[in-house]
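so im writing up the methods section and need the ATPase record in one place, dumping it here so i stop losing it
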Amino acid sequence: MRGAERPTDPAGTGWPARLHVVTGKGGTGKTSVAAALAMALAAGGRRTLLVEVEGRQGIAQLFGIDPLPYEERHLTAAPGGGEVRALAVDAEEALLEYLDMFYRLGAAGRALRKFGAIDFATTIAPGLRDVLLTGKAKEATTRTVDQRRVYDAVVLDAPPTGRIGRFLNVTAETARLAKVGPIKTQSEGVAALLRSPMTAVHVVTLLEEMPVQETVDAIAELTSYGFPVGRIIVNGTRPPLPTGRAVSAAELRRGLVAAGLPTDKETVAGLHDEARDQLIRRELEDSLRTDLVELGLPMIELPLLPDGVDRAGLATLADALLRAD
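--- predicted struct ---
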């Protein structure tokens, strides 16, 4: 990959990078957002690859399918004839592939597994595991057949915000440690791609204090390492309240009367407390939203899905991502 190469956006998706790294605090719906983004980018006849690297098989669970092998498989179709493929990267399999590719070990490399050499290699050099994981994403992003890219975009369901900086920067650290040879070349190539306009790191959050703080910290860390931060994706947002002020007990009672519902003291008091709590919650969310806006990055809000994240819910999220400004 040439460092000066810049991705184009001929389909007008609004997401011009080719490698989309999706991170976020645990519990923010990071995997769901990554899957929805892969679906959005595949719309209109394009092909995308959704990659996971944590060994959780989150993609398989999300789509209700068997665990993914270390093999690119069809995952789902996208509107307009597009296709999403998926891959669960296994560090051991990636190392064997690496040994075969660069050292032509073939069966001899696979025999190393019997002696525990694979675990030994990734234990004494823990950074090697992340180099192999990110290296596979880089290979898929830059892969061509007949001078045409195999995938229009690759979406990486990456580790959470607490580990994302270390995960992405390990390639640069390994490149400094390895003075010569394929490992150095591989690490330098991955490090260059991750810091180029070909890549965008998107951070998923909720309008809650801890996820927002981790988002702020992660963006600062990613920026300090030189990684291109893409969008802040606020997941699970709720529609505005009908009124932006506290509702009085008298107003609640009148509304209950008009609806033909009970207006006893306990009912009115309970609803009044609930309405007050909702208003306080929304005021906190507005404050947190302001904190995110002040980061000066593009931000998109995804709706809360009352029925959970099923196939229809993923399609709703994909549509919202595709229509993002």
